[in-house]
Amino acid sequence: MQISLENVTYVYGEGTPFEKEAISNLSLTIPQGAYVGIIGQTGSGKSTLIQHLNGLLKPTSGTLRMGDLEINRKTKQTREWRRRVGLVFQYPEHQLFEESVIKDVMYGPLNFDMPADMALLRAREALNIVGLPYDEFKDRSPFQLSGGQMRRVAIAGVLAMQPQVLVLDEPTAGLDPAGRKAILEAIYGIHQEQKLTTILVTHSMEEVARYADMLVVMAGGQIVMQGKPEDVFIQAERLRSLALDVPETVSLIHKLNQRLPMDQQIPLTLYREEELERHLLAMLTSGKGVRR
Amino acid sequence: MSMLTNFAIGQYVPAESYVHRLDPRSKLLFVILFAFAVFMANNPVTYGILTIFVLSGVAAARISYGYMVKGLKPVWFLLLFTVVLHLLTTKGGEVYFETGWFSIHEEGVRQAIYMTLRIGLLVLISSLLTLTTSPIDLTDGLERLLAPAKKIGVPVHEVALMLSIALRFIPTLMEETDKIIKAQTARGADFESGNMVRRAKAMLPIVIPLFVSAFRRAEELALAMEARGYRGGEGRTRLRQLKFTWRDPALAVILLVIMGLVGWLRA
Fold it and tell me: What is the ipTM of this complex?
């Protein structure tokens, strides 16, 4: 499902001395089936933006559209919108409350009036997707799991609602490398399998480089760059001026290109690790360009 | 969000003003003594003096009147209740209106106005205190004022510490609540429909995670305090000393004038 934002502005604490504009006049279209990475420093407006995507915040001015639905300042009902867009918050494990894993995962589907047997089925699927075998985990208390497992239960809780758009706010914050990889791979898996529109908010350039096919860079409540990853990564200087960096692969390509002759320059489109590796291997084995 | 952002009653608003820079001890004492003055007032002149004083105090603190009125929101009901009660029950003086058992008397109207003013003034002056004093200053001031009570075994330092921790964590827990409400709303939770039992049940997904995180925070805080060598108030020095300045005697003079005027002009 395509989501589009038109001139969306949001002001926190309107009419108090603490008034603050979090995002200003923001326009963006997220195409159906895309995997969008949103990056930006803390306080750049990322979190505010994604709460709009889920209908939790209503814009102070401007409009959001998805299919036949619309949200603006005056919209009252956002439930249908919310059903279509699943939002996984930062540290989602803090929202767990049920006595067993399966009950917690079923909470969302049941809230959206899904029949119990159907909800159970979906919860079971969702748990398997995030790599927690149903039979082993269903009856355990979510509070006795490890941090990484708790987070996966929370993500399963959103997946079980079978949203058409999935929004994740730093799903890997505070996890070890293995836990990060497991969660990101699971998300990428369902993104590809179900053509699920996925929006990933992160600080890590490596993560977006690996998965996203569209990047949105935010700073000071505005979108400062957007487009294909290679088009964003080519502006390394600009990214650095926003206190962001390019992925390791991109800076490696930049460094190599400075030493390589013009006809052997490595294209920036090879920012994914595997592709770069293949390209470099091909160069090495063909014996070209390896002069000291 | 909306239900929590409006909950900014008495939240410290940093600014540079005479009122802000008063010593917290003076402000605390002033509020207590001012309350006495409010209870002494019993005629239009004395109430007028106090009202003018509070309003100019708000102006001196550079806080907008609109914001102060918003701060009165939680007591609107109390004010309204007071007015209605006095109108209905206080008898005496001229009768303004009468149908059957129901009548409004001169005395009732007067008491309704006085009581509303009394509550309003007390709420305004105490929210002026919290609006212009940071929580840390406030508890520091309280600890110093209550210091003599240590001699009779009152754990003043501990009470002040508890108070400042509680104040410190109000915004944190508020934010946490807000986050959890949002997270559960995103999972389709509905806190508004259904009967009392249903609604109370709907609160569980908020209350349980909130308790879990409050306990976790408490544990972490205790650990962090111990790790930095906290061992109670005994022999503890302060980074920021409270100091009286010229502003504080000036406030004392203002207070004396007000008390004097109210004492002299009251009926």
Answer: 0.84
CA distance B262 to B38: 9
Q: Which two tokens stand for residue A96?
A: 């767990």
Neighbours of A243 (CB within 10 A): 11
The label of the residue with tokens 């917290």 reads B24
β-strands A35-40, A214-219 pairing: parallel
Domain ranges of chain B: 1-133+242-267, 157-236
Structure tokens at A16: 């108090």
Q: Which residues pair with A200 in a beta bridge?
A: A37, A168
Q: How far apart are CA A196 and CA A198, in angstroms?
A: 6
- Residue among A202, A208, A194 at smallest CA distance from A122: A194
For residue A16, the chain B residues in CB contact (below 8 A) are: 5, 8, 67, 70
Nearest in space to B175 (alpha carbons), one of A90, A96, A221: A90
Tokens of A223: 């979108």
Percent of chain A at pLDDT above 90?
52
Q: Hey, of A97, A122, A151, A158, which one would you mutate to test binding to chain B, going by the most B CBs within 10 A of its CB? A: A97
The distance between the two most distant Cα atoms of chain A, rounded to a whole number of Å, is 68
Residue-level pLDDT at B48: 93
Q: What is the predicted pLDDT for the residue at B117?
A: 92
What's the rounded Cα separation, in Å, for the pair B87 and B105? 7
pTM (whole model) above 0.90: no
pLDDT digits (tens, 9 = 90+) for B156-191: 888 888 888 888 888 889 889 999 999 999 998 888
CB atoms inside a 10 Å sphere around CB A173: 13
**Model pLDDT for residues B17-66, shown as the tens digit of each residue:** 999 999 999 999 999 999 999 999 989 999 999 999 999 999 999 888 88
Q: Which of B70, B190, B209 sits opposite A111 (nearest CB)?
A: B190
Cα–Cα distance measured from residue B8 to residue A18, given in angstroms and rounded to the nearest whole number: 10
Residue A46: φ, ψ to 5°:
-60, -50
Q: Where are the beta strands (DSSP E) in B10-127?
A: 95-99, 102-105
* Distance between CA atoms of residues B11 and B134, nearest Å: 9
pLDDT reading at B79 higher than 50 = yes
Contact B5 A95 (CB under 8 A): no
Q: In angstroms, rounded to a whole number, what is the distance separating the alpha carbons of residues B171 and B166?
A: 10
The reported pLDDT for the residue numbered B42 is: 87
- Across the range A83-101, mean pLDDT stands at 92
Nearest to A252 by CA among A238, A270, A264, A237: A270
Q: By C-alpha distance, which of B156, B148, B147, B141 is closest to B32? A: B141
- Cα distances from B10 to residues B15, B61, B159, B231, in angstroms, run 14, 13, 21, 31
Q: For chain A, what is the mean pLDDT?
A: 89
B13 touches chain A (CB under 8 A): yes
